[in-house]
Design brief:
alpha/beta, D-Maltodextrin-Binding Protein, domain 2, five-stranded mixed sheet, globular
Length: 425
């Protein structure tokens, strides 16, 4: 399944911990937190002897829904509370309705790209000071920190890696020693793998894939403190010019530019339209289901002039500011983010833990995904600034034309102008 949240800049921390990975889900919810009263401050527990909570999730399928239901039920039995898990059909819409109507779920998946919007609107309880923030990967803590406060506990996350078609790789005379470590080597192997209807590297056509090159050049679209748009920086230009260079050489294409066009990089890879792609760990399930005969090798993305770089996709466990069950909700989140529970989620539906200890255990138990795990140490998280979704959507529409004569200068100029306006209010 292709996960594409819109990305921009958050402060990057190069933590010493081994990292983990997850698929990013778009967020939303509906329903009630159980007896919310408009006159209440939302800080007191219901006085019914036990709390009745709702969890709203964006589920990737039955396996994820059941895993969350089982975890919630185990907590309910231990705590004496009640909990209902709702898998939303349209998360952004349902969550918006819950907020607008004053009846949000108590706990809900929250996309990192929406944290700033939700916090600015007063929808989130910033409960980071009530949990052990040091137990989570530093990059994720930074991602969910807004206005100086950790808004919510990181749920899980994923990073991008280089996915190699092992059969095509071997047929091209390439060995393990040829796995690219830098851009020059990436260009060289992509050239060798480009033949007939197969392009060496096929990636998604937006910032969520090309942005990895920007981070490898040492840049991003917004300054580390979130106070300035840097789309016109030399580093951003260097990263995207590398994409354009490989396009002009015919060894890299966007999935929408292949013949036939592919729905995403994973489809192009599975059909051998692309010998390599850049995707997250969700590609394993897609290949297993749709292309079971394709053998894939996973490697860390090559370094650029700025060093290692990848993108991370993540959600947190948001708690509604208007929930009357906040104390119980925090306790529930602590249960859901315990190491044993996160490893149970990993086994059930393939996500990767957000805690330092969980990440280390994941890397040990799933060595074939070590490249995904390693990216958590240096991954670039989604923007958590309010109002940037339209800016990124406009930029993506222009970036998608890069392989068909699109104007990179114009796209970056537009981002700089629109992003600066968003930052200005």
């Amino acid at each position: 399944m292709n996960r594409r949240p819109l990305l921009a800049r958050t402060t990057r921390r190069r933590g010493a911990a081994v990292a983990a990975v997850t698929a990013a889900l778009t967020l939303s919810a509906c329903g009630g937190g159980g007896g919310f009263d408009e006159s209440s401050s939302g800080t007191e527990q219901e006085e019914s002897g036990s709390a009745s909570l709702q969890i709203m999730i964006g589920s990737s399928g039955d396996a994820e829904t059941k895993a969350v239901e089982d975890a919630a039920q185990a907590w309910a039995e231990e705590s004496g509370n009640e909990v209902e898990v709702i898998a939303a059909s349209d998360l952004p819409q349902q969550l918006g309705q819950g907020f607008a109507g004053g009846t949000p779920p108590d706990v809900f998946y929250t996309d990192a790209a929406r944290v700033g919007d939700f916090a600015e609107a007063g929808n989130l309880l910033a409960y980071g000071d009530q949990i052990d923030a040091d137990s989570f990967l530093p990059s994720l803590v930074e991602t969910f920190t807004y206005d100086g406060k950790l808004q919510c506990a990181p749920k899980d996350y994923s990073t991008l890696a280089l996915i190699i078609n092992q059969d095509l790789w071997t047929k091209a005379g390439l060995t393990e020693a040829d796995v690219p470590k830098d851009w020059a080597q990436l260009e060289a192997v992509a050239q060798k793998l480009t033949s007939g209807s197969t392009t060496g590297l096929v990636i998604g056509n937006d910032i969520n894939r090309s942005g990895a090159f920007v981070t490898q050049a040492g840049g991003w679209f917004v300054a580390e403190d979130g106070g300035e748009v840097t789309a016109d920086s030399a580093e951003v230009r260097t990263g995207l010019e590398q994409v354009k260079k490989m396009m002009d050489a015919g060894v890299l294409k966007f999935n929408t530019d292949t013949d036939p066009a592919a729905g995403w990089g994973g489809e192009a890879f599975g059909k051998a339209i692309g010998a390599m792609t850049i995707e997250g760990n969700w590609i394993r399930g897609a290949l297993r289901n749709d292309f079971p005969d394709v053998e894939a090798t996973v490697a860390e993305l090559p370094e650029g002039p700025g060093g290692k770089g990848t993108l991370l996709f993540t959600n947190c466990w948001g708690i509604a500011a208007k929930s009357p069950n906040q104390e119980a909700a925090v306790d529930l989140v602590e249960h859901l983010t315990s190491v044993d529970q996160q490893m149970a989620f990993a086994e059930a539906y393939g996500v990767m833990p957000s805690t330092v200890e969980g990440a280390e255990r994941f890397a040990e138990e799933y060595p074939e995904d070590a490249a995904f795990a390693a990216g958590g140490e240096y991954g670039q998280g989604p923007v958590n600034l309010p109002g940037f979704e339209p800016v990124l959507a406009d930029f993506n529409s222009q970036l998608a034309t890069l392989g068909k004569g699109g104007d990179l200068d114009k796209a970056l100029e537009s981002f700089q102008e629109n992003g600066s306006a968003a930052l200005g209010g």
